[in-house]
Amino acid sequence: VGTNLTDLLLRRKVTIRELGGCMGPIWPSYYGDCGAVLFMIDAASPTQVAASCAQLLSVLSAEPLASVSVLILFNKIDLPCYMSLVELKSLLRMQDIVSCATQPIAMVETSARDGTGLADVLQWLQAAL
C-alpha cells in the first residue's frame, strides 16, 4: 500500500511515482507536481479496460494536467491473451479521446517482463521533459 518512487537520470533527474489504479481517488493530490503522465493499461485484461478508460478520461480532464504530455502504455504484450493495439484503440475509442484532449498523447506497446518498448518510453520521456 502506498506509492513507489523511482529516480531516473536522463538529461536531469526525473522521479517516477507509481500510483496504482486502486489509488485513483488520491491521484489529484499529485497532479500539481507532475511534468508528464505515463498511463499504463493492462492489454491482457479486457475486463479492466473499461475501468482504465474511465480513469484515463478523469486524468485527461484534470485542469492541472491540461498541457502535460501523456504516454499511454499498453502493457503485457508478451502474454498470449493480450489485445492488439488496433483492438485496444478501437475498444477505448482512442481516436475520439486524442481529438478531444488538450494534451499531446502518444501510445506504445510494452512488456514490463521482457523490456519491449522500454527504449521508446525513455525516448518519449526525454523529449517530453
From TrEMBL:
Q: Which UniProt key words apply to this protein?
A: GTP-binding, Nucleotide-binding
- Database matches in InterPro entries: P-loop_NTPase (IPR027417), Small_GTPase_ARF/SAR (IPR006689)
Where along the chain is GTP bound?
21, 75-78
Name the domain of life this protein comes from: Eukaryota
Q: Which GO terms describe its molecular function?
A: GTP binding; GTPase activity
Pfam families, alphabetized: Arf
Name of this chain's protein:
ARL16 protein
Q: Which organism is it from?
A: Nothoprocta pentlandii
